[in-house]
Specification:
By secondary structure, the protein is of the alpha/beta class. 47% of the residues lie in helices and 14% in strands. The chain has a single domain, classed as 3-Layer(aba) Sandwich (Rossmann fold). α1 links the parallel β1 (2-7) and β2. α3 (63-75) runs parallel beside α4. The radius of gyration is 18 Å and the shape is globular. The chain binds NADP nicotinamide-adenine-dinucleotide phosphate. NADP nicotinamide-adenine-dinucleotide phosphate is lined by residues 8, 10-14, 36-38, 41, 59-61, 87-91, 110, 135, 137, 180, 182-183, 186-189, 191.
């Protein structure tokens, strides 16, 4: 059985990946495994899709959730994972002193540990033509004050994805780190804004989930390792490669003040 595993499928990018893969003609999955905490949202999505879905309503920051997914993979006979899309993630806007130890640990657990552990578990069930998409962010290209820990988690995802792409290339498995700029129509920004709008109050030229998803799926099919799906993420990637971190951080102050 060919499957697609999509984490963060209850909203935003994850849900949009499920919708666009459902319509795709190429590399189709027989079943989607949809993962997030809100069961009712996953069920609503499953109802609208043509592809049969299996729902995993679980908190990916717990060992039990990742173990349950691993167990489900191992229990299937002839399982072939055609798509693994790790889109579950969250961030917090604000100074380092506004981040509680619990939230910091949860962010590292979800954005880094869960994505890496699930990916490692899935690789043995993949073969030539399979695709892994790790949803990073252009925040991962450099340090981002007042979004500091989030940016650091995305740096890890980006670096891990790039090395994994190199290691898996001989097997014909593609790995793409998706690095968008702000997206205006997902739940991410509302959840991240904890600082009474003091930082990143306006998000000029924010992109949309549909555009990020269609461009990143095209990048994955082309075997690209890093996808910057909008103009500002591409500009950031170029500037971060050319300029020192301190200069980028000073320039990013302007974005806080907009
Ligand atoms: N939106 C942006 O501006 C932006 C920009 C660059 C990168 N990104 C990245 O894109 C990815 C998707 O974000 P989004 O914009 O689509 O935001 P979103 O709408 O908030 O989606 C986040 C998803 O993660 C799931 N999730 C959160 N905590 C979880 C947990 N503990 N266990 C399992 N699932 C959990 C949420 O579902 P439940 O609440 O139901 O669990 C939700 O489905 C994230 O990794 C984010 O860092 C977003």
């Amino acid at each position: 059985m060919n499957i697609a595993i999509i984490t963060g499928a209850s909203s935003g990018l994850g849900r949009e990946y499920a919708r666009q893969l459902d319509l795709a003609m190429e590399n189709r999955a027989d079943e989607f495994w949809l993962v997030a905490r809100r069961q009712e949202k996953l069920e609503a999505l499953a109802d609208e899709l043509i592809t049969p879905c299996r729902i995993f309503a679980c908190d990916l920051t717990t060992n039990e959730a990742v173990n349950a997914l691993h167990g489900a993979m191992a229990a299937e006979h002839d399982l072939e994972i055609r798509w693994l899309i790790c889109a579950a993630g969250f961030g917090r806007i604000g100074g380092y002193d506004e981040l509680t130890p619990g939230t910091a640990a949860q962010m590292i657990n979800l954005n880094c540990c869960a994505a890496v552990t699930l990916t490692q578990a899935a690789i043995p069930f993949m073969s030539a033509g399979s695709h892994i998409l790790e949803i990073a962010s252009c925040a991962g290209f450099q340090p981002v004050p007042y979004l500091g820990l989030y940016a650091a988690t995305k740096s890890l995802v980006l670096s891990y994805s790039r090395s994994l792409a190199y290691e898996l290339a001989p097997q014909g498995i593609s790995v793409t780190a998706v690095c968008p700029y702000w997206i205006r129509d997902t739940e991410f920004v509302g959840r991240a804004q904890q600082s009474h709008g003091r930082y990143f109050r306006h998000l000029p030229l924010a992109t949309t989930a549909a555009s990020v998803v269609s461009r990143s799926l095209a990048s994955a099919r082309l075997g690209r390792t890093t996808c910057t799906p909008d103009a500002l993420s591409l500009l950031d990637r170029i500037l971060a490669a050319l300029l020192p971190d301190w200069l980028i951080m000073k320039a990013s102050r302007l974005l806080h003040l907009l």
